[in-house]
Design brief:
The complex is a heterodimer of chains A (265) and B (294).
Chain A (H helix, E strand, L loop, with lengths): L2 H10 L6 H8 L1 E5 L12 E8 L2 E8 L5 H6 L7 H16 L4 E7 L6 H5 L2 H13 L5 E9 L1 H5 L6 E5 L9 H8 L6 H7 L4 H6 L5 E3 L10 H21 L2 H13 L4 E2 L1
Parallel strand pairs in A: 3-4, 4-5, 5-6, 6-7
Antiparallel strand pairs in A: 1-2, 2-3
Chain B lengths: L20 H7 L8 E3 L6 E3 L20 H8 L6 E3 L4 E2 L8 H12 L5 E8 L2 E8 L10 H17 L3 E7 L7 H20 L4 E9 L1 H4 L8 E4 L10 H8 L10 H6 L5 E2 L2 H14 L10
Parallel strand pairs in B: 6-7, 7-8, 8-9, 9-10
Antiparallel strand pairs in B: 1-2, 3-5, 5-6
Helix pairs in contact in B: 4-5
The chains are: A alpha/beta (265), B alpha/beta (294).
Chain lengths: 265, 294
């Protein structure tokens, strides 16, 4: 199996530690908040306030389950518009109270359904992109598993974007890529390779800023190996971002996303 | 609950109701060369000379897809359009095999270098920045160039304190440019964020079809969001949704009228009235023309 396909398989493993586990390991006093105040509460997005080494933070993440029952309650980690709107509500709250925001991204993509369209999936994602780009408080996004397209980006317009070693991030799934561009869904491995969706490639392309290593025996067998390093990275980065002047923080965030693109003139 | 089949309030399209709708929609309403053309919506055979510069079906009023050049002609005041970045071209950030050839083919087909034309112009005497996407160029997909040109146009508008009007039509992100095309969604949205912060007006005009990453970024971020009748507007493609939920989609799903009903559009405007409407909106946002302000 190619390295890319191996990472895809690992990122999607059903027992891969999920957002609630990361929150439990890394933060104290997590207090979950619900609802977007507009329509409902989306189980696919978990969010609330917590303490990180004594510092109040807002934590938001996309939740996947380990069992069918869990997955039904979190829609297999595919948020509806109300999930993105809940996330935005909590981010605005963080801005008001000068708390940094930490997001955990792990989704195959935003949910594709009738209700999602009726309630404006596109609008919800778009709004998050714009509002996150000018949120007056630091944002760190951590890709822990799958990072599927706009549904992942909607929680990842951040000052720093990190990824676990076997995370991935792409414009669509390798299956989708193969079937759309080559009308041949059997060429998945080739697509995964070509799409440069693994952490190593993404670091090279400056889509992510840091790779967090995973234990050889598998993340599910030794979660603290990775969360210890995440804690260290957060302890080092959060104070830096929190001490930055808001104008400088926003300028840097703007430039971070402004730079993407290859073209000739 | 139309038991007696009052189904044809819409142009006799049946697009959502009959088999093969997907295939038809993919090709969309477009005008092939030759003396006679067929409307993909009502299937009528039309004498080409009957189609005006607005590119409407004389039989069913379907709004055919337009090129940026045609759009400029019916939207801007004569000879006022000044193009930006006309020579910007794609590179190949993902080393996608034969991307050069794909691009070359698209350029030949659409007669432009990339999937969007940007510039500044006057509409009914009002200065504005414009971006006009082209569905004839790789289905208006957003890659580096589309994202960059739109971002620059918005940034120019912010610097010059001008409004920006974006005509969208797109299948979504440019797959061949991988993750870099996804990043264009963030790039264009943050540029609109700054334009917004500066207190300036943005208008998006969603034309058929506007889907995927363009819907999920600048298309849905206009202060005012207009659309043309019957335009397909959505995030997910209809085949993807059907494949996910294994259900038929309701009549008129993801059409402009559906989006208006669900609160995601300000107005649906017939193409012949669009120029007047844009001119009026621009005028009502131009402080130098309203009395009593400053």
């Amino acid at each position: 199996m190619s390295d890319a396909m191996k990472s895809v398989a690992i990122a999607r493993m059903i027992d891969r530690p999920n957002t609630r586990q990361f929150i439990r390991e890394i933060f104290d006093d997590f207090t979950e908040f619900h609802g977007d105040r507009l329509f409902g509460d989306d189980g696919a997005v978990v969010g609330g306030i917590a303490s990180f080494q004594g510092r109040p933070v807002t934590v938001i993440g996309i939740q996947k389950g380990h069992t069918l029952e869990e997955n039904l309650s979190c829609n297999f980690g595919s948020p509806n518009p109300e999930g993105y709107r809940k996330a935005l509500r909590l981010m605005k709250q963080a801005e008001k109270f000068h708390r940094p925001v930490i997001t955990f991204v792990n989704t195959a993509g935003a949910f594709c359904g009738i209700g999602a369209e009726e309630r404006g999936q596109g609008e919800a994602i778009a709004r998050n992109l714009m509002e996150m780009s000018r949120l007056k408080t630091p944002i760190i996004s951590i890709f822990t598993g799958e990072g599927g397209s706009g549904g992942a980006l909607a929680l990842a317009v951040a000052d720093e974007v990190w990824m676990l070693e076997h995370g991935m991030y792409s414009v669509l799934s390798p299956e989708g890529f193969a079937s759309i561009l080559w009308r041949d869904s059997s060429r998945v491995a080739e697509a995964a390779e070509l799409m440069k969706m693994t952490s190593g490639h993404l670091l090279q392309n400056q889509v992510i800023d840091r790779i967090i290593p995973e234990p050889k025996e598998g993340l599910e067998h030794n979660l603290s190996f990775t969360t210890d390093q995440l804690e260290e990275a957060l302890a080092e980065t959060l104070p830096k971002l929190c001490n930055m002047k808001v104008e400088e923080l926003l300028k840097k965030r703007y430039e971070r996303f402004r730079k993407y693109g290859e073209y000739s003139e | 609950m139309n038991l007696f089949g009052k189904k044809s309030y819409f142009p006799a399209d049946g697009g959502d109701r009959k088999k093969g709708a997907d295939r038809r929609r993919k090709s969309g309403p477009s005008i092939p060369d030759g003396m006679w053309i067929k409307c993909n919506t009502c299937k009528a055979i039309i004498y080409k000379k009957e189609v005006t510069e607005y590119k409407l079906c004389p039989n069913c009023d379907a709004h055919f897809r337009m090129s940026p050049k045609e759009r400029i002609a019916v939207t801007c005041d004569e000879d006022t359009f000044q193009e930006f970045d006309a020579d910007m071209e794609s590179m190949n950030p993902m080393d996608y095999p034969d991307y050069d050839e794909v691009i070359e083919k698209a350029q030949k087909k659409a007669g432009i270098k990339e999937g969007v034309v940007t510039g500044r112009a006057k509409i009914k005497g009002e200065d504005t920045v414009l971006a006009i996407m082209d569905s004839h160029y790789m289905m208006g997909s957003m890659g580096s160039v589309v994202g960059e040109k739109i971002t620059r146009a918005i940034e120019y508008a912010t610097e010059q304190r001008l409004p920006v009007i974006i005509f969208t039509t797109s299948g979504g992100a440019r797959m061949q440019e991988g993750i870099i095309s996804l990043m264009q969604m963030a790039k264009t949205s943050e540029a609109l964020g700054r334009h917004d912060e500066a207190g300036l007006l943005s208008v998006t005009v969603l034309t058929d079809p506007t889907t995927g990453g363009v819907t999920a970024s600048f298309a849905m971020l206009g202060d005012i969001i207009l659309s043309e009748p019957r335009a397909l507007i959505g995030f997910a493609g209809q085949r993807v949704i059907k494949g996910t939920i294994h259900q038929d989609l309701p009549e008129g799903f993801q059409r402009a009228e559906f989006q208006l009903e669900h609160g995601f559009l300000d107005r649906i405007v017939h193409r012949e009235k669009l120029r007047d409407e844009l001119g009026r909106i621009l005028r009502l946002h131009n402080p130098s023309e309203s009395e009593g302000v400053e």
